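For this section, I looked closely at the sequence of one protein beside the tokens encoding its backbone, which the following lines show:
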Amino acid sequence: MKPAYKRILLKLSGEALMGDDSYGINREVITRIVAEIAEVVGMGVEVAIVIGGGNIFRGVAPAAAGMDRATADYMGMLATVMNSMALQDAMKQAGLDCRVQSALSLEQVAEPFIRGKALRYLEDGKVVIFAAGIGSPFFTTDTAAALRGVEMSADVVIKATKVDGVYTADPKKDPTAVRYQSLSFDEAISKNLKVMDATALTLCRDQKLPIIVFSIFKTGALKRVVLGEGEGTLVHID
């Protein structure tokens, strides 16, 4: 089958890499995620990735209590660099050609973010991982995913979570919660459905860049999203 999207921006939370661990990177989980990514790359889809750092920052969060917000945010950015390096290593072991570009200057471990270079990598079939958010404090990796998605002219931002879509309420707390098949950006914002933060949602809405929320823990789910098979929840322009 032909993919519904040629170029995607995949947003991975740091927590997705933990598996059932309390923090850190679960090797079995990251290997399985990479296998899912490799499957869509094999279909000819161009893949860019933004990854969070919560799995690492969670381990130092108690010490960060009361810390200057900008300092804490820079620590979180460094955590995303660590995750990006781990993901890149797992991809190389799986035979994928991958590059890490960082919004912070860390040239010993990652290239600086250069838009034109990243676009060429994607066109050449390489996976590009964007680390360190947007390089500024007070912005989330959701916003980084929206911004990089726009900059890379992605067809869609795909947010990988532990839940298989956006629900009317927290499905873990409310058994009557119903999953949305699709909803508009304005609905997501007005109902505060926590698809992404408000800055990211507004940017995607203004740039007409759709978002799909799905569970990375469902085998084959990423492939089904890319094929347009109705996996997860689609957030779109009215």
